[in-house]
Every structure is written in C-alpha cells, then in structure tokens.
Amino acid sequence: MERHTVIANWKMHGNQAEGVALARGVRRLLGNRFPAVEVVLAPPFTSLETVRRAIKGSRLHLSAQNLHWQPQGAFTGEVGADMLRDAGCSHVIVGHSERRRLFGETNGDVGRKLAAALDASLKPVLCIGETLRERRDGRTRQTLSAQLSGALKGVSKSVKDCLILAYEPVWAIGTGTNAAPAQVMETHGWIRQALVRRFGAAQARHIPILYGGSVNPANASELAAVPEVDGVLVGGASLDHRSFVEIVNAFSGREA
Ligand code: PGA
Predict the structure, then answer these.
(1) Structurally, how many domains does the chain consist of?
(2) Which H, E and C letters describe the chain, residue by residue?
C-alpha cells in the first residue's frame, strides 16, 4: 500500500515543453521500480493536457492547483471540477496560502471548493498554515482550527481515501527555511486530533497529513522520519526533476 504522498506544485512556472520535459524526467528517474509512494504532479492549467499525455501509462497522478466551486457559468477565468476531471486530473490543491493571501480566498471559499472537488470525485489537497505573526502571537492552533472548520464544514463523515491535508506554515513557503521536525511533529499531531474529533478515529486515520514549506533533497529524509508526516507538498524543489525524485525516494523507504 502507498503510505506516503509526494506532490509537485509547479505553481505558475513553465510552458508546455518545459512541463513535458519535467514530467518525462520524473517518469524516467522513477522508472520501472516505481516506489510505493503516491506521486502527484500539479502543473499550471495550460500544461495539464500535455503533462497528462507525458505521464499516461505510468503511476504518476495529475493535479490542478485550483478550481472554482461552481460547475459552470459566467465566471470568467475560472475552471470547474468536472472540467478538471475531464482534463485528466485526479487531485486538486485547495486553499493554498498563496490563493488565500494574494487572491483573497476565505475559509468559506475554500470550503465551497473542497465540497465541489469531493462532489466531482477529485481528491482535494487541503492546505492550511499559520503566518509568522500568528505563530509569534501564539495563535497557530486558532488559525488552523478556523481553516479546518471553514473547509470541512459541509463534509460528511465518509472521507476515507478521498481527502489529503497539507500543513504548510506560510513562513516556511519559498523561504528556504523549513519548519523544524519537532515543530512539524507537534502540529501534525494536533491536526490529527482535530480530524479525529471531526471524523472519528477510524476515518481520521486514513487522511494523509503532508508537510509543505521549503522541502528539498537535503531535508526530505529528516522530515520523512517524523512519524506524523505522511508525505510532502513541494514547490521550488519540484521544478528540478532530480531534486523532486530524490525527495520521493526519501519517502519510499519507510515501513508502514
Ligand atoms: P516551497 O513551496 O517548497 O517552494 O516552499 C511549497 C508550497 O507552496 O506548496
């Protein structure tokens, strides 16, 4: 069974040719002895189709980075869940801190997006995380709690195998400074308990909690060694296929 999930978030990087080269590089390096890790690539919308073709027949999964909660309509510039399914996506990132911070997404919006993704059988990767100020003010749990309840409000108890959580402290994203393993362990443990309260232990056990924020080949092994870390969401380091595959490999060696 795949116990870990490693996701490449390419953000707004690369044209189609670059996306295909990156996807092919990952595919080639993971090769036939594909590790027991769920590996997901999240290119920009414009490269979904070419990357889909480049990974066809492999065990790589395709994700979008965002969606709108309506299935269709007069929403210029937006893309709905069924459209993403149609484009070959199995996953979608929801509530990334850049969406919240730069594009004004609220916890309510994130909840609507999450529900739309689940309705369309897309696996949402729900991102939550505190800012530096929130952490310094001792408001980390309060922030995470509000983000979780906003996003999961309408979600029924049956989330087994259809939801992924990503804890991404905003201060660690793109800064080169990852959260310390002890910090990650503590926060993931708290998130797990929050999920147990909401969904019950049997369901909560099946929701992977990934860490994100300056993950790279140098720190991947120590993050993989944290018992509460079920994988990682990788930004910058996923733009280099060798670095990304090194990170995947760091998560493949652990016993279930
Ligand atoms: P980073 O980004 O790895 O570049 O810090 C992570 C993310 O934003 O998902």
Answers:
(1) 1
(2) CCCEEEEEECCCCCCHHHHHHHHHHHHHHHCCCCCCEEEEEECCHHHHHHHHHHHCCCCCEEEECCCECCCCCCCCCCCEHHHHHHCCCCEEEECCHHHHHHHCCCHHHHHHHHHHHHHCCCEEEEEECCCHHHHHCCCHHHHHHHHHHHHHCCCCCCCCCCCEEEECCHHHCCCCCCCCHHHHHHHHHHHHHHHHHHHCHHHHCCCCEEEECCCCCCCHHHHHCCCCCCEEEECHHHHCHHHHHHHHHHCCCCCC
